[in-house]
Amino acid sequence: MMTSMMALIDELWYLKRDLVSDGYDTALNRLAQEVPMTIHEYPTGTPCWTWKVPEKWTCDEAYLETLAGERIIDVKNHPLHVVSYSLPFEGVVKREELLPHLHTHQRLPDAIPFVYKYYDRDWGLCLPQTLKNTINDEAYKVVIRTRFENGSLKVGEVVVPGESDRCFILAAHLCHPAMVNDDLSGCVVGLDVARALLQGPKPFYTYRLLILPETIGSVAYLSHHEELIPKMNGGLFLEMLGADIPHILQHSFMVESQVDKCFAAVLADSDPPIVRKPYREVIGNDERQFNAPGVRVPMLSLSRCIHPSTAPNYPFYEYHSSLDTPALVSQERLEASRDLVLKMLDAWEKNRYVVNEFKGEIFCSGQNIWIDPTVNRAGHDSLFKIMERCDGTRTTADIAVELQIPFQAVWEIISLLLDRQLVRLSPKPVPPALTRY
Length: 437
Ligand SMILES: [Zn+2]
Fold this sequence. Notes:
Elements: H1 5-12, H2 22-32, E1 38-43, E2 47-48, E3 51-52, E4 56-66, E5 71-74, E6 89-94, H3 95-98, E7 102-103, E8 125-126, H4 129-132, E9 139-149, E10 152-160, E11 167-173, H5 184-199, E12 206-212, H6 216-223, E13 232-238, E14 247-250, H7 258-266, E15 275-277, H8 287-291, E16 299-304, H9 331-350, E17 353-356, H10 364-367, H11 377-388, H12 396-403, H13 407-419, E18 423-426
Parallel strand pairs: 7-8, 11-12, 11-13, 13-16, 14-15
Antiparallel strand pairs: 1-10, 2-3, 4-5, 4-9, 6-9, 10-12, 14-16, 17-18
Bound molecules: zinc ion.
Zinc ion binds next to loops.
């Protein structure tokens, strides 16, 4: 029995899903019940290129009290009340010493912020600014009981086998405790995309969905699967797909890549239009590790995000706070995002080099594909412009981008030509046999 995306969110969102933690493992194991998943483990201290896997972190207790014993903050009331990877600390501290360790949200005075100090170690608690404003005593009692132990960072991998071992990566992170839009929404959409692909006909590409802790999870996986990197043709990072905000696509570092062109062309006829922005101009996530030097896999990112130019609510109002709850997301929007990803991948599957099996201009009337220019001028022109470009050196996406026609419209013409065996598709370019000097 498949659990709906929204039901999985309701079940898993409140877990303390810190980088390497029991809560993260519980969430990943639960997702693994929904779909065949391999869980890769990387023990604490494992070198991963220039990084190494951090310790497992557990918070047993964390609170702030007045010296009279009145509890002001208690992690029992919300997992975000303690800084993720906070050092343990116990003692009575003066107000001036305490204040720098009390973190608030820059924009949301009533929310608890999500603060993490994975590598820049310090102790800290988080609280609403309105509550911090009441911290006026001379001294307070702080108790933070946290443990750093050897553990294992875990990366979940769902493989949808294709005819080719060349692969496409879908990625989402799971390491944001007690939050939903960022990041659990991306995980459940990825999971539903994988379920749909597994139920459909065998694809051409092999698809790999990776669910991981942000940044270190990608570095751990990539550094332990170097042999796969040359086979990765492209990727898509998924996050923030539940809020009531339009989709936005962030390009990869390699904007001329086939996957960049394909996704740009497939979204060209979206209604409402989907904004596209360059690499690093929407939001940074695991796609950074895939696009980075030595890896250079063109990975784009799909989210529902307010563009930075329309701040102050960037990337969405409740971002990295206790207000990012299931109330923000809906099954309907998650499904719309899933369907959009499936539409993009459907185009990606079709996007191969279009090789002409004809010479000269096609006798369109004879092939019954003639479009009368007096009836449909644009259709007539497009038909000829598309046919002209079917020469083995261009993909459907290349043609669509070159002509500024949506992918689907180009594909309709290519399909007609395929039906009549006037063209064939090739995963690699087939340059014309004749070269002139
Ligand atoms: Zn985040």
